[in-house]
């Protein structure tokens, strides 16, 4: 039985896993503490109703390199040139449609709102933020961008508390995937909530609860009976695998990919191993999508797969997925 060639796709979008998944593995992460003397009025709450590392992740940090290069606060490169905020992303547009709430990170007063910009569509000039909320607080200003069309819940002049719902994560404005872009400004200048130090490395953060530094990871993974259609995976609308379809494929998507990163695939069926293989990533990419598998007359039953991401021999992330193959 011959192997289906590895699929190589790249871009700034997501793919969707069908069926339950379990996340594991030893993240290569560092947690740096919040400022010990930080005033409560300036301690940031996490602004999305999700579980970081499970149902959402940080796609981009603030770019701290003042020149043409890129450097995040952890001395890595999970950012892009000139990026002035923190991007908190979710898996795909199906998750966006189900609704993921954005909440106020600090108490303050709403100074401006915008709604009515469509998601995943062209946007008017000057509306890169898409639908958003601007709040003035004791810290300075917080700008929440790319909210879902029609979801903004607050009004200009409204007083909000920490945790007040502002809207839902969307893909409005200049957004290649569903996410919240949060920019903090003090005196009109962007600041990094993860570090107030002038250089990268361990530093005190503005978060009320310490958040881990994660340089890369897996967005999601899945099992299919053919190489998935990319529009379907971006939408989160993949059908389940069918029996006797002629092939089985296991796929995964990486964020923060770097040259030399390795994706390892392991697919097991009712009678044991179905496929095992790996893909080495060749270049830096915000997103990298790979799929591998084999031609097989798959019988109905329960199939399990694991996708593992390693960097320089260290496991960064692992996702386990399950799928029931039906006639």
From TrEMBL:
<dbReference type="Pfam" id="PF01551">
    <property type="entry name" value="Peptidase_M23"/>
</dbReference>
<dbReference type="GO" id="GO:0004222">
    <property type="term" value="F:metalloendopeptidase activity"/>
</dbReference>
<dbReference type="InterPro" id="IPR050570">
    <property type="entry name" value="Cell_wall_metabolism_enzyme"/>
</dbReference>
<protein>
    <submittedName>
        <fullName>Peptidoglycan DD-metalloendopeptidase family protein</fullName>
    </submittedName>
</protein>
<dbReference type="InterPro" id="IPR016047">
    <property type="entry name" value="M23ase_b-sheet_dom"/>
</dbReference>
<dbReference type="InterPro" id="IPR011055">
    <property type="entry name" value="Dup_hybrid_motif"/>
</dbReference>
<feature type="domain" description="M23ase beta-sheet core">
    <location>
        <begin position="83"/>
        <end position="193"/>
    </location>
</feature>
